[in-house]
Write a structure and sequence with these properties.
Number of strands: 8
CATH topology: Rossmann fold
Order of helices and strands: EHEHEHEHEHHEHHEEH
Shape: globular
Number of domains: 1
Structural class: alpha/beta
Helix content: 40-55%
Number of helices: 9
Oligomer: single chain
Largest sheet: 5 strands, mixed
């Protein structure tokens, strides 16, 4: 199952997985039925396989997630939590679950999704969370390394509900902090569920992704049409959509990858071979921080 599968990295991940003969079925978890149907048809045409099944799911809506899982007829081998981005036109808007929209889209919905799958015994082998090098800081892009005061449960909760930012809510910086919290949550889950593999994987600086389409106009133009396609490739800061999606494919098929680890690009680049991000930002390996982030996000999971 791939969330956010109708476009960008999610869609190309589905394409690449379908080209592997061992792949029997791919669930396209999408919130928009017409866009999902179009993606399904295009994927069938380009791969020559009719193995794509649509599941309507809005990861920013916990009830939508629960409804989708309850309708799932059979267990899945792998989950790729790809949906995310900078939170739409109102990233700081508070959802009915009490978190910001950017938190709901990138993290809370996926927390609920994993919980529901595990509760119903519908996740058999691996869960992959689409993280980002922003979770350990990207100096060249002005994305600061997370610098929390205490990394307590309360501090993480204040990040997730937006109260820590007050009037300084910069979606790009908040995005990195949410991905950081989500990555820590995944590492905590790996210790709680040793029979399931939990991998965090950054797709790197991927061209063609739609995750930043809702940034303010000037930021969007600079990032999407100037930085990503022209400047960033020269700096080793962006690669093709296919290479970004391949990281996700490798993430669920490479048996050498270790549960609980966040894999991403080497220091100072967003392309090339993947490495354990704890070697760049040791806080990612702190089990207390991991469990605090885990407890914080569960404050917002409604039964």
């Amino acid at each position: 199952m791939i969330t956010g599968a109708n476009a960008g990295i999610g869609k190309d991940t589905a394409r690449q997985l379908a080209l592997k003969k061992e792949t029997e079925k791919i669930y396209l978890a999408c919130r928009n039925p017409s866009k999902a149907k179009k993606a399904q048809q295009e994927l069938e045409e380009v791969t020559g396989r009719s193995i794509f099944e649509i599941i309507i799911m809005d990861v920013s809506d916990s009830e939508s997630v629960r409804t989708a899982v309850s309708a799932l007829a059979e267990p899945i081998d792998a989950l790729i939590m790809n949906a995310g981005g900078t939170g739409g036109q109102q990233p700081d808007k508070i959802t009915k679950d009490g978190v910001t929209t950017i938190t709901a889209t990138n993290l809370l919905g996926h927390v609920v999704l994993v919980d529901e799958l595990l509760k119903d015994n519908k996740l058999k082998n691996i869960a992959l969370f689409a993280s980002s090098e922003a979770a350990r800081g990207i100096k060249q892009m002005g994305m600061k390394r997370p610098n929390l005061k205490s990394s307590s449960v309360d501090e993480f909760a204040a990040i997730f509900d937006g109260t820590v930012f007050k009037d300084d809510f910069d979606p790009m910086q908040v995005y990195g902090l949410i991905k950081y919290g989500g990555t820590l949550w995944m590492s905590s889950m790996a210790r709680k569920y040793p029979n399931i593999k939990f991998i965090s994987m950054s797709p790197g600086g991927t061209r063609g992704t739609q995750g930043f389409d809702d940034l303010p106009f000037l930021q969007r133009v600079m990032f999407k049409y100037i930085g990503m396609p022209i400047i960033m490739p020269l700096m080793g800061m962006s690669h093709s959509l296919a290479k970004g999606a391949k990281r996700f494919v490798d993430g669920i098929t490479d048996e050498s990858l270790i549960s609980g680890v966040f894999y991403g690009s080497k220091k100072n680049v967003l392309t090339g071979p993947i490495v354990d991000q704890r070697t760049i930002f040791p806080d990612l390996g702190n089990e207390i921080f991991q469990d605090n982030a885990h407890q914080a996000i569960y404050r917002f999971v409604r039964s």
